[in-house]
Amino acid sequence: MEPRIAVVGGGAAGLVAALEAARAGAPVALLERGKALGRKILASGGGRCNLTHRDIRPERYHGGGGVRDLVGEALSGFDAAWARAYFEGLGLMLMSEPDGRVFPRCGRSRAVVDVLQAALNELGADIRLNAGVAAVEKDGEGFLLRLESGGDLRARSVVLCCGGPSYPQLGGSGSGPALAESLGHSCVAAAPALVPLRVKESWVKMLDGIRVEAALRAEAEGRTVAESRGELLFTAYGISGPAALDLSREALRALAGGRVSCAVDLFPEWGDGEFRKLLEERALRFGRRSLAGFLTGMLPGRLPEVFLEQQGLGPHDRVEALGAAGLEALQRGLKGWRFELLGPRPWEEAMVSSGGVSLPEVDPGSLESRKAPGLFLAGELLDVDGDSGGFNLHFAWASGARAGRAASTR
Ligand SMILES: Cc1cc2nc3c(=O)[nH]c(=O)nc-3n(C[C@H](O)[C@H](O)[C@H](O)COP(=O)(O)OP(=O)(O)OC[C@H]3O[C@@H](n4cnc5c(N)ncnc54)[C@H](O)[C@@H]3O)c2cc1C
Q1: How high does pLDDT run on average in the chain?
Q2: How far is CA 231 from CA 6, 244, 265, 336, in A?
Q3: CA distance 249 to 218
Q4: Domain ranges of the chain
Q5: Span 103-146, pLDDT tens digits
Q6: 379 CA → ligand 1 middle, Å
Q7: Of 214, 329, 367, 369, which residue is 20 to 30 A from 280 by alpha carbon distance?
Q8: What is the DSSP string of 218-238?
């Protein structure tokens, strides 16, 4: 039997779109180019799958014109409570962390893919792996899908859920925008978002693997262009971890226009005045220690030593010899350690891509194309990208559900 709905892409958005269409009683075919479903889901959250966040809000999403309106409407009724209920309804137990991120309780992203796949199998959905779609053409009332393997398939509605170009090793490609453009859409050029950043200071490699809680501020020409706070991971080439990833989108945009520096506040819990007092108190208590010894217990691993060297302060100098000006310099460095940003790491390390199908060309309620009726679009393929913390997968589930349900009513 020919499917009424063809869902292209078996990632987060496609799995939920197919499931919701199948639940509505529509014959569905799910076409996935790779040899497995949900490869990015499996890799997400360090293998634990940070599948949503307790505080899903349109402000946590970015994109071109109309992004807040589209996301606001697409997420209405598909909020954090919906996502919890949706996965719990599939039998998945969940847990949330104090910062609001939600994970499967078993700590395994495999469980997320398994419950979705099991539900699709129960409903008899036609899941096809190694089934890349090379072209989608308008065909009377419906569509003709040409497969990369040579065959073809007709469907009344198509839900495109092909994701973006990030992580090509997990199926990321530019295929979704190309298919959408062939049906009359325009796309905002893709750029890496949530991507680790390279810095100019090559000595950063001495900090490789060190994690700290920090606040970051990206500055261009003395102006703040982006701020973030959370775990920062130093790497052999620069900075990564949630704080760096969340900064990357806006920092990279600013970099396109000139130099951008990043100020790292290693003690964001304290304001300048409070932190100065804390340093003074510690200097009184531990005045006889070396500067490196003074910072040990405040900062992890080799960080004190490297920090002091880069600030031009002798790790072996005594704290009591610092004086007020020295303490002031120490404070300024600890709350505003500067790095010069050079650019992103490659697509292979960009968790999300910004850009995609232009939002005004999509109906926000149904996610149906305004260019090709019967075509629906969901997930990262749209010009929407979220902050780190579960926002991207949440958008994929929510938009997939909305598009799958709407497609089943045509
Ligand atoms: C390493 C990593 C960790 C991440 N961690 C998190 C996290 O913890 N929390 C979070 O919220 N987000 C996370 N993300 C982002 C999140 O995984 C994505 O935003 C989300 O998977 C997007 O879902 P999607 O369905 O739109 O696209 P994808 O999941 O990319 O799925 C698209 C699918 O379409 C297939 N496809 C493409 N073209 C075709 C074609 N022509 N024919 C057939 N099939 C095709 C691809 O093979 C792929 O399987 C992470 C991403 C990565 C790479």
Answers
A1: 96
A2: 41, 8, 12, 16
A3: 11
A4: 5-193+351-408, 196-344
A5: 999 999 999 999 999 999 999 999 999 999 999 999 999 999 99
A6: 8
A7: 214
A8: EEETTEEEEEEEEEEEE-SSE
Q: What is the pLDDT of residue 410?
A: 86
Residue 281 has pLDDT above 80, yes or no: yes
pTM of the model: 0.94
Does pLDDT of 322 surpass 80?
yes
Q: What's the gap in Å between 270 CA and the centre of ligand 1? A: 38
Three-state DSSP at 47 gives: helix
Q: Is 324 left (phi over 0), alpha (psi -120 to 50) or beta?
A: alpha
- Tell me how far apart the alpha carbons of residues 188 and 62 are, in angstroms, rounded to a whole number: 13
> Strands, E, within 173-222: which ranges?
187-193, 197-199, 211-220
- Whether the pLDDT of residue 32 is over 80: the answer is yes
How do residues 62-99 score in pLDDT, each as one tens digit? Answer: 999 889 999 999 999 999 999 999 999 999 999 999 99
Distance CA 333, CA 30 (A): 54
- Of 33, 39, 347, 43, nearest to 166 by C-alpha is 347
Determine the pLDDT at residue 1.
60
Atom of ligand 1 nearest to the CA of 134: 41
CB-hemisphere CA count at 13 Å for 39?
Answer: 17
Domain 5-193+351-408 sits in which CATH superfamily? FAD/NAD(P)-binding domain (3.50.50.60)
Statement: residue 207 has pLDDT above 70: yes
Q: In sequence order, what are the beta bridge partners of 290?
A: 318
Interatomic CA distance for residues 321 and 228, integer angstroms: 35
Q: Which residues line ligand 1 (CB under 6 A)?
A: 8-14, 31-34, 39-40, 43-45, 50, 132-133, 161-163, 166-167, 170-173, 175-176, 351-352, 379-381, 390-393, 396
CA of 195 from ligand 1 middle (Å) equals 15
Q: How do 152-155 and 157-160 pair as beta strands?
A: unpaired
Q: How confident is the model at residue 255 (pLDDT cuts 50, 70, 90)?
A: very high
